[in-house]
Structure formats: structure tokens, C-alpha cells
Automatic annotation (TrEMBL):
UniProt-annotated stretches for the region Disordered: 269-294
Biological source species: Hipposideros armiger (Great Himalayan leaf-nosed bat)
Cited PANTHER family: COILED-COIL DOMAIN-CONTAINING PROTEIN 189 (PTHR28457), SIMILAR TO 4930578I06RIK PROTEIN (PTHR28457:SF2)
Gene name tied to this protein: CUNH8orf74
Amino acid composition bias (Basic residues), ranges on this chain: 282-294
Protein name, as recorded: Uncharacterized protein C8orf74 homolog
InterPro entries attached to this UniProt entry: CLAMP
Superkingdom per UniProt: Eukaryota
Pfam assignment, any one: CLAMP
Length: 294
């Protein structure tokens, strides 16, 4: 309590509650503590802080405000483990001890304050501050992802039109994938053909002499042609199937585009020349109708 001066409690009151509590902790010369894990010390600090708020609200001078904090701290210590009857007796004795430090009005206000707070909730104070509590606390840090910033409403489009654009985009993507797949197949077959020809030609020196006979050369050429024909056959089959698939995708896109929803209702605005022409035609119709009646 050595640092709890009138100037100190005045500063506590002038701060907002979080900063005021922290300043009060420093004035009391308490070490820093975890508010969640050390709930007893946190509640005790709250009680002392609220006594300052009470005293200032009742118009206590700053010197007496510091004494109210001292009174509160002593009362909490002296009543620890006592019955409620003993606590009331201790409160009365302490008020008599401080009788010379407060005027009668402030002393009665202090008496009412502790009767309406401390004594009324005495069992709760004893349960929290008077005995050790088994704290099972689990702290989980959760990352909250804020939703993305919405685009301006002016950039929005009709739901049906958006769905139509998504369908067209999916068909275009499928078409691109087909074309890419065809290019990859061509490259794969080319490499496969080169590998098979190289393998076929590499077998010749191992089983034949350096000079090939006419029949052997013809067989080798026929085998090479057969390899090329087989690869070309696979490629043509794949190209035909891929072409049909691409045409089918183009046909689907055409159907979608023909049935595309209209984004906004079309507003027909007539030009000045059109207005004059419309008036002229209307006037002529009126004249012809009068002539027929005559």
C-alpha cells in the first residue's frame, strides 16, 4: 500500500477500466498474472478497483479514496474463513477503527456499501477468495476467416445469365482439354514409334551379318512400315473420336447461346427522326379514314 497515494488513485479513476486496473496492480506492487488462470487475484483486483469507483462516486476526497482501498483489502484478509456473523462483527469493529478518518456521512456510505455488496454476497466471496479452486482450463486458439469483400452491386449480373456463362465456360474448358489431349497423344505416339523403330533396327546387327540380303532387307522395311501404320491408325482413330467430341461440345455451346437469357429488359428509345415519321404516318392514316367516311 506504500504506493497507493491520493495522486495514484486519482490516476486509476481517470483511466478506462482495463488501464485503470493495470495501474492499480502496479500501485499495489503486485506481479503480473494471467487473468484467466488466476481468477482469484483477478476478482480481488476487481473488488479493489470497484471500491475506488464507489468512493469517487460518493464524493470522497482523494485522500479518503486511498483509505477506502486499504479498508477493503484489510476487510477481505481479516474475514477469510470466518462465518457471516463473525464477518459482520469484524466489519463493525473496522468501521469504528476508521471512525476518525472519515466523516459521518462517508462512514455511513461505506457501511452501506459493504453491507449491500460484501455481506450480501458473503458466501460467494468466501467461496472464490477464501479457498483454493481446482481450475481446469483449456484454451483453444481458433482462426476466424472473415468473408471476402463483396463486389460492388453495379458489377453484379443476373443469376440466370451467370449460370449460363458458367455452363459456356465449362464447355469451352472441356473443348480446350480435348485439343490438349490430342496434342499429347500425337507426341506420345511419335515417341512410341521412334522407340519401336529404334528397337527393331538395333536387333539387326546382333543377329545378322553386316551385309543384309534382299529378302531380309524387305522384311525389315515391311516391319518398319507396319509399325508406322499401326501408330498412324491409333492416331487417326483418336483424332476422329476427339473431333466428334469437339463438334458435340461446339453444338452444345451453340444451343446454349441461342437460349441465352437476356441480362436486362431491352428499352426501345425512338430517335427524333423516328418520332416525326411516326407522327406523319399517324396523320396520314387519320386523313385516309376521314376520306373513306365522306
Amino acid at each position: 500500500m506504500a504506493l497507493l497515494t491520493p495522486q495514484g488513485v486519482k490516476k486509476v479513476f481517470q483511466f478506462q477500466k482495463p488501464a485503470g486496473r493495470e495501474h492499480l496492480r502496479k500501485l499495489l506492487n503486485w506481479e503480473e498474472f494471467d487473468e484467466l488462470r488466476d481468477s482469484r487475484r483477478s476478482i480481488l483486483l476487481d473488488t479493489l478497483y470497484e471500491s475506488i469507483i464507489f468512493a469517487v462516486g460518493k464524493g470522497f476526497p482523494w485522500v479518503e479514496v486511498a483509505k477506502v482501498v486499504k479498508f477493503t483489502e484489510e476487510l477481505l484478509k481479516e474475514t477469510k474463513g470466518c462465518s457471516i456473523t463473525e464477518a459482520v462483527t469484524i466489519l463493525g469493529n473496522k468501521l469504528r477503527d476508521y471512525q476518525g478518518q472519515f466523516n459521518t456521512t462517508h462512514l455511513l456510505a461505506l457501511c452501506d456499501y459493504f453491507h449491500n455488496t460484501f455481506i450480501r454476497h458473503y458466501k460467494l466471496y468466501q467461496y472464490v477468495l477464501g479457498q483454493d479452486q481446482e481450475v481446469n482450463l483449456t484454451v483453444t486458439h481458433l482462426e476466424v476467416c472473415a468473408p471476402p469483400q463483396p463486389l460492388p452491386l453495379a458489377e453484379g449480373i443476373d443469376k440466370d445469365l451467370w449460370e449460363h456463362e458458367q455452363q459456356v465456360a465449362e464447355l469451352s474448358m472441356a473443348e480446350m482439354q480435348k485439343r490438349t489431349s490430342l496434342m499429347l497423344m500425337k507426341e506420345t505416339l511419335r515417341l512410341e514409334q521412334e522407340h519401336m523403330l529404334q528397337k527393331k533396327f538395333s536387333e539387326v546387327p546382333a543377329r545378322q551379318s553386316r551385309v543384309l540380303k534382299r529378302e531380309e532387307l524387305e522384311n525389315l522395311i515391311n516391319e518398319a512400315i507396319l509399325i508406322q501404320v499401326e501408330c498412324l491408325k491409333k492416331l487417326l482413330q483418336y483424332e476422329i473420336q476427339t473431333t466428334f467430341d469437339i463438334l458435340d461440345l461446339k453444338f452444345q455451346k451453340k444451343i446454349l447461346n441461342l437460349n441465352a437469357p437476356v441480362a436486362f429488359p431491352l428499352s426501345v428509345t425512338s430517335q427524333p427522326g423516328q418520332d416525326e415519321s411516326l407522327k406523319f404516318k399517324t396523320a396520314n392514316k387519320g386523313k385516309k379514314a376521314k376520306a373513306k367516311k365522306k
